[in-house]
Fold this sequence. Notes:
Layout: E1 12-16, H1 21-36, H2 40-53, E2 57-59, E3 62-63, E4 66-69, E5 76-86, E6 96-105, H3 109-122, H4 126-134, H5 138-145
Parallel strand pairs: 1-5, 3-6, 4-6
Antiparallel strand pairs: 2-3, 5-6
Helix pairs in contact: 1-2
Amino acid sequence: MELSNILEKGSIIACAKVASKRQLLQELAKLAANDIGVPEQKVFDSLMAREQLGSTGLGNGIAIPHGKLDGITSVRAVFARLENAIDFDAVDEQPIDLAIMLLAPTGSGADHLKALAKVARLLRSEKIITLLRETRDIDKLHDILISQPEDVNVA
């Protein structure tokens, strides 16, 4: 599973101005709803249901909120680089400033897990994280996100 197959440039927020976890999830749901043709509230409810099981804040300023939905046929991603870090109940208790949301069709266990693994691997790279935090350009953010960590050069 490659991020280039599930993340469109139009699904990137370069400078999200949100003040809370709830507000971030609402913004991600709004952008995803436009992309996948599912009501925004349905997307938001899926994300909130998953968050109630435990925070998807991984630590190091990164969150991977995710959920499963009826009515979609493939995994989709939305990325947000936040203007200011927010509390996300992350495992390290630190605020987050990078979030990549994944939505998968209900019953898509393997694809959903492959996408989560791919994103987690990508965001383990300090090079990638640094580049994502340094740019506000949607094209550059997209290029960084769909790259392989070993292919990225820190300028």
